Amino acid sequence: MTLPLSRILLPAATSTLTNLRSWLDKPDARAKEAELLDARLAPDMFPFTRQYQIASDTVKGAAARLAGVEAPAMPDTEASFAELQARIDATLAFLATVDPAAIDAGAAREIELKFPNGGGMRFDGETYLVQFVLPNLYFHATAAYALLRGHGVAIGKPDFLAHLAGNMFAPPA
Q: Residue 156 to residues 31, 93, 104: CA-CA distances in angstroms?
């Protein structure tokens, strides 16, 4: 059985972005906002703010490329948690406008990514989603999560998987 691309992309993107957004509401994260915005896991890695921007770009770019529509422009100017949350809200709003059937139709479409250094990559739509988009999305979400944890924010695996909360049940007594 083959899953339609929209059934892969939309739930994964929506839940991951929604979880990322909610982490910024944690009181101890809010208390450390100024130090977190430019925090890095390593000197050669992007800062916290950029992790959120790339997660957003990954999702909106994937939906647009697969569906053959234009992604909204979002300048990378966020300088607060509120602005990062607004960016996620705008990304989720864009996702809601993309026709799932158009995403599904992109499975065989050639996707070409061009990088600032002049290089790039080519994929068919399915390979692009499964082997590039999802790992990239989870990488940047995990980097943001690790930065929060590393700065003492009380966040755990249940926060990363918060979208599954309705599926949890108590162990037998």
A: 18, 27, 34
pLDDT digits (tens, 9 = 90+) for 119-167: 999 999 999 999 999 999 999 999 999 999 999 999 989 888 988 877 7
Distance (Å, whole) CA 63 – CA 114: 17
CB contact at 8 A, 71 and 64: yes
Q: What is the CATH number of domain 10-38+46-70+80-163?
A: 1.20.120.450
* Residue 49 · residue 38 · CB < 8 Å: yes
DSSP H or E stretch at residue 113: strand 110-114
Say how far apart CA 147 and CA 149 lie, in whole Å.
Answer: 5
